[in-house]
Amino acid sequence: MTERVSTLSIDSAIRIAKIIATAPVARMPMITQLFHQASVDLEGLDELIENSTLTNQTQLIDTEEFIHELTED
Predict the structure, then answer these.
(1) Residue 55 pLDDT exceeds 70
(2) Contact indicator for 4, 39 with CB cutoff of 8 Å
(3) Is the whole model's pTM more than 0.85, yes or no?
(4) Residue 23 carries which DSSP code?
């Protein structure tokens, strides 16, 4: 199977960027699946989702307080 590579128009790229920028992190897996089914490979999107998820998880706790509790005698 050969890989088909095509160039997006600026308009299409802007539309995709708007979708990604405004979508809640919880919806990103659905969006990436949709693009994948449409054979649109958005490089780095998986890493962006992973980093966003990690950022949201760190906001659940007070990191400074957590580290203090771990290191106090």
Answers:
(1) no
(2) yes
(3) no
(4) S
Contact criterion met (CB below 8 Å) for 25 and 53 = yes
| Residue in the structure block whose two tokens are 């920028």 | 21
Looking at beta carbons, which pairs linking 2-7 to residues 24 or more positions away fall under 8 Å?
Answer: 4/39
C-alpha 20: how far from its chain's center? 8
* Structure-block tokens of residue 69: 């509790």
Specify the amino acid at residue 36. Answer: H
Question: Among 42, 49, 33, which Cα is nearest to 8's?
Answer: 42
Sign of CA dihedral 18, 21, 22, 27: positive
Tokens of 5: 């590579």
